[in-house]
Amino acid sequence: MGVRAAGLRAFTAVGVLVALYVAVALPFVVVALAIGMMVRGFDLFSSGEAVIVAELVIALVALVLELAGPRRLPAGIAVTPRDQPRLWALVRATARELQVPEPDGIVLTGGTVVGLRAVRRPGITLHKHLVLGSAVPTCLTEPQLRAVVASALGGLRRRRPPLPDQLALHGLDMVAGLAEAARARGAGGLADAAQRFSARYEEICAPVLELQERTADRFAAGVYGTDAIADGLDALRRVRVAWGWYRRGYLNAGLATGVLPLDPLGDFKALLADPVRAAALDELADDEPPRTLVTRAERLRARPLPGTVALRGGAQGLALGLDDPRRVVSHLHAYLLATDDDGIAGSGAFEMLDGMTSLDREAFLRQVSGYRAAYRASRLAPAARRAGAELPVTLGGVVALLVEGQGAKLAREHAEGGTAETGPDSPVVSALTALLGCAWVDAGRARWDLTWSGHDRVTSYDGAPLDLAGLAARAIAGPEGGRELRSALADAGVSLYHEARMPASFHAASERETAVGHR
């Protein structure tokens, strides 16, 4: 039943593709028939020539769409064997052992994408390119990289899919290409319609895509063995989850505050090397939604294959890396920051980078930590005002509420109708901890802890951690904790006039926000 359903959906996808040709060609058909009727009169319809004219126009439109439609390569740089000799040697050796043609090119882009992309440029011949997110060769060991590249190159195997599947996949590629082209040109409503049609077409073709993906994985597993390919997919999954964490927690915060990391790949490797963060990322990787790398690895292990070629590679614990990484990062810097996890740049993606400042790792972490903490702290201002604090809402006003035993009320107002939690891990304690961190740093009594833990903690200038979270939790719990907090602020010389405000905004190419001047 599964194969029959996949075949039915494939034929449905072909029908949708033909409907697309007809819909796009319809205005041209009307014009052609109008011209024909002016020349031949109503004989055009009675003789059946109208049908021939309509078919010819639709065929010409389909030909134009086929020549112009397939999607372009993702934003990135094409590297030659001279640019990246080790990477090219690995890909060529893998293709030789799989007995498939080597790709026509390799494109390095942002994110963690690994896959083949067919382009019809120049001319009408299809060229297959291996698209690699630059974080993949930077973070995977050589055997792991061989495994995921082998799975991608499985699409070049000599055995081709059935004709309906080929048409469905080709139609998907063409429709996605038209949607990308319309979005890149800022076509407005047309771009939105093309994007919705592309998403619907991909949903229809999902069983065909899964079948091709599964076939490519098993083809690679038949050469290198199930365990090798599945382990490579597991490693890619961990890197992909980590890159998503890095993008959401650090890159996006940097883009919002107007600063960029000087070496994104180096910072990402440092994040992966952090033991606390690595354990948390492993837990996140286990919670991925279905139809991902988890499912692919599980399908392979369910039907193991022994393999015929030993997966060779360098040291198991060392990544292959990129040749001349400083030069590569200098070229890839914008693509690492402005593209999504699949290496796709949306409309106006690169405009946001205009006028931003690049900072080294330490300065970047301090800026991002201050920005995120200021955002969390700003949530306390409206909650404290509703709880009875006077305007402007300052740290002293919040502390006064806590000394009066209003911690539970502050928690209820902060929850805005939700559960008023007051425990050590509650949102109100987190917000108060962020406010205290901003106040301590603003007073010059502490600095942000430079870790990749995702928590914006502060330390003294001699490196000793400050237990601001404990102070905040006790202050929320009761008046005694509030008085303890007030004494700690006085002893540290932290001003009670520090305001719990949103980070200030400034305008450059577009509106951005910064943690600087959050007082």
Write the layout of secondary structure elements.
Blueprint: H1 2-40, H2 43-46, H3 49-68, E1 76-79, H4 85-98, E2 105-109, E3 114-119, E4 127-133, H5 135-139, H6 142-153, H7 163-184, H8 189-224, H9 226-257, E5 259-261, H10 264-273, H11 275-285, H12 293-302, H13 325-338, E6 357-359, H14 361-378, H15 380-387, H16 395-403, H17 407-415, H18 427-442, E7 447-448, E8 458-459, H19 468-477, H20 479-492, E9 505-507, E10 511-513
Parallel strand pairs: 2-4, 5-6
Antiparallel strand pairs: 1-2, 3-4, 7-8, 9-10
Helix pairs in contact: 1-3, 1-7, 1-8, 4-6, 6-8, 6-9, 7-8, 8-9, 9-10, 9-11, 9-12, 9-14, 14-18, 15-17, 16-20, 18-19, 19-20
Distance between the termini: 65 Å
User: What coarse outline follows from CA principal-axis ratios?
Assistant: globular
- Helix % is 55-70%
What is the gyration radius calculated from CA atoms?
Answer: 29 Å
Strand content: 5-15%
Q: What is the mean pLDDT? A: 79
Discrete helix count: 20
Please report the total strand number as a whole number. 10
Order of helices and strands: HHHEHEEEHHHHHEHHHHEHHHHHEEHHEE
Classify the secondary structure makeup into a structural class: alpha/beta
The strands making up the biggest β-sheet line up spatially as: 1-2-4-3
Q: Give unreliable regions as ranges.
A: 505-519
